Amino acid sequence: MAGIMNGKRGLIMGVANDRSLAWGIAKAIAEQGGEIAFSFQGEALEKRVRPLAESLGVARLFECDVTDMASIDAMFEGLKADWGTIDFLVHAIGFSDKNELRGRYVDTSLDNFLLTMNVSVFSFTAIAQRAILMMPDGGSLLTLSYYGAEKVIPHYNVMGVAKSALETSVKYLAMDLGPQNIRVNAISAGPIKTLAASGIGDFRYILKWNEYNSPLRRNVTIEDVGGAGVYLLSDLASGVTGEIHHVDAGYNVIGMKAEDAPDM
Ligand code: NAD
């Protein structure tokens, strides 16, 4: 099936390299005929993001650090000047000090708690506030979460608390924006080796555990996430909002270690 995103255009935030979940979603949208703009965090990442953008024919790139409201405003001003309106937005952004993504949650510092909540949670609302002004005929907003929002995952710590808050913001935003036909959803993705994930203590163990114990007995890929992203951003999901959609090889439904899983 091709062309599901024909005639739709939107902004994808959070491509850092070709392992990023946002890149998986971008590729799937481009394959389905959607028109994309990218944002990247800073000059260092631009070198990686620009060639990726060119390979998909993405002409619009905006620098944006979500801790800086002026930079968010400038990005939306640029986008508005270019396009006027958008149909979708992908927020694939998260950050926490990696020194606090190991050990115990109880040792979280206030500074890192606030930083993590700002970058990983509030930024989605800050982006939504501006994106909806460019969605006069409705639209679709998507963010990325993880199972550590629901259950305790070793080392995920403050990021788990942030993802819980992010998932709850999805539901409140869905209620607020539903009357404008703007849908708001999250994908709760299984663990995938990316730049952000490399900051999480013992991430290789998490990957192996998920591979052995998921119903599909494998880890998910950025292409798996991309497919689900297209679904949620397209009219195929026209009746879906406030949803936390698991793309995790089914891991969230299991209650105990699989019988055939090797000892770890
Ligand atoms: P990634 O490192 O490729 O992407 C993280 C992105 O966040 C980067 O592009 C980075 O530039 C951006 N970012 C961080 N701070 C920012 C700031 N202040 N301003 C603007 N951008 C900023 O890693 P990823 O795993 O693709 O992460 C994307 C999203 O997916 C995150 O929300 C992450 O928590 C979520 N997620 C990842 C996994 C996984 O296992 N990799 C699983 C579930 C959910």
Q: Which short descriptors sum up this protein?
A:
binds nicotinamide-adenine-dinucleotide; globular; 264 residues; 7-stranded parallel sheet; 7 helices; alpha/beta; single chain; Rossmann fold
| Major beta sheet, strand line-up | 3-2-1-4-5-6-7
> What is the average of the pLDDT values?
97
CATH topology: Rossmann fold
Q: What is the structural class?
A: alpha/beta
The beta-strand count equals 7
What is the CATH superfamily?
Answer: NAD(P)-binding Rossmann-like Domain
CATH architecture: 3-Layer(aba) Sandwich
Helix proportion = 25-40%
- Uncertain segments are none
User: What fraction of the residues are assigned to beta strands by DSSP?
Assistant: 5-15%
Q: Which class in CATH terms? A: Alpha Beta
Distance between the termini: 41 Å
Number of helical runs? 7
The Rg value, from CA coordinates, equals 18 Å
Q: Categorize the overall geometry.
A: globular
Helix-strand string: EHEHEHEHEHEHHE
How many structural domains can be distinguished in the coordinates? 1
Which small-molecule ligands are present, each listed once?
Answer: nicotinamide-adenine-dinucleotide
